[in-house]
Specification:
The protein folds into 3 domains: 39 residues; 154 residues, 3-Layer(aba) Sandwich (Rossmann fold); 98 residues, Nitrogenase molybdenum iron protein domain (Rossmann fold, 3-Layer(aba) Sandwich), CATH 3.40.50.1980. The protein has 299 residues and is an alpha/beta fold. The N terminus is likely disordered. Helix 2 packs across helix 6, helix 5 packs antiparallel against helix 6 and helix 8 packs across helix 9. The chain has a 4-stranded parallel β-sheet with strand order 2-1-3-4, with helices on both faces. Strands 6-5-7-8 form a 4-stranded parallel β-sheet, with helices on both faces. The chain contains 10 helices and 8 strands. Helix 4 links the parallel strand 3 and strand 4. Bound molecules: zinc ion.
């Protein structure tokens, strides 16, 4: 009886240990599955500067995916299948606002994911017209899409992103509000630095190939002279007219986007004689790009 009891006791103990071990294993398996299944929700944005700003607002609560990779040209961008699938698995798509590929993407994806929420990050920004035609030939009406190359606009973009987050995830409103406040403080400091550097440069001109800095020029009272407003090779006659214009304005800086702009820019600059400065307004490191542009102009 004693023996039997002892035997049963040992058996029960072994069983309990086995059950406990299985429970732990099951818990581990369940947790890792759960982690995969319930990973962070995703928001898709169009360009890297949006990712930079949005990540500062959503922190580690959301995964921010970007359609346009570094170095790609937004004017000729055709989204890959992977990009479109990412978008279909997203809770929301934040368009920059007026980049030509954005409307095409929304039409493509909306049929497959009608629940996808859409937000325009440039809402409320006073748009510049007359700089772009993007092949439609209607240069006077088309809004300039490069709203993000402006610290003033970035404040508005950040607020728009915050409003969208409160709409998507109202439970974390306080968290997003704290992050927005920190971001706006950073943007104010950036704005102060740039404005101080360019204070005595109002009225001066700079040259670009593609007119990607219209909003930056507006913020600081500068004149942007674009060698190729149509986004392609300019005719010899038109190019010469712009070169003469740049010389008349005594432009000291030419900005060049090496992945996108034509080599014609460098040839034209042999006549203009400006300092050639490489920029990438589509870089993730948006704040550094703004400083890089301001720094070149402040010399
Ligand atoms: Zn453009």
């Amino acid at each position: 009886m004693n023996n039997s009891h002892k035997y049963n006791g040992t058996y029960a103990h072994t069983l309990a240990t086995a059950v406990m071990a299985l429970t732990i294993i099951a818990a581990v398996i369940f947790t890792s599955c759960a982690r995969q299944q319930y990973s962070r929700p995703t928001i898709t944005v169009s360009i890297q500067p949006q990712k930079y700003l949005l990540e500062k607002i959503v922190g580690d609560k959301w995964d921010v995916k970007c359609l346009l990779s570094n170095g790609a040209n937004p004017e000729s961008y055709d989204p890959s299948l992977t990009h479109l699938l990412n978008l279909e698995n997203s809770k929301a798509y934040f368009r920059m606002g007026n980049i030509p590929f954005e409307s095409a993407i929304i039409n493509k994806v909306h049929n497959n994911n009608p629940a996808l929420k859409l937000y325009n990050n440039s809402e409320g920004i006073s748009l510049i017209t007359g700089t772009h035609s993007h092949g439609s030939g209607q240069r006077d009406e088309e809004p300039d899409p490069h709203t993000w190359t402006s610290v003033v606009n970035a404040r508005k973009i950040a607020s728009n992103m915050y409003n969208a987050m409160v709409d998507l995830d109202p439970d974390n409103k306080g968290y997003y509000a704290d992050n927005l406040r920190s971001l706006l403080t950073e943007l104010d400091a950036l704005q102060d630095t740039i404005a101080a550097g360019l204070a005595d440069k109002r009225g001066t001109a700079f040259v670009v190939w593609h007119p990607s800095l219209s909003y930056f020029a507006r913020d600081y009272g500068l004149t942007q002279i674009s060698l190729s407003p149509e986004g392609k090779e300019a005719s010899i006659g038109m190019l010469q007219e712009t070169i003469d214009d740049a010389k008349a304005h005594d432009a000291k800086v030419m900005f060049f986007q090496k992945d996108i702009d034509s080599r014609q820019a460098q040839v034209a600059n042999e006549q203009i004689g400006a300092t050639l400065v490489n920029i990438n307004p589509l870089s993730y490191h948006w704040d550094k790009e703004m400083l890089n542009i301001a720094d070149a102009l402040s010399k």
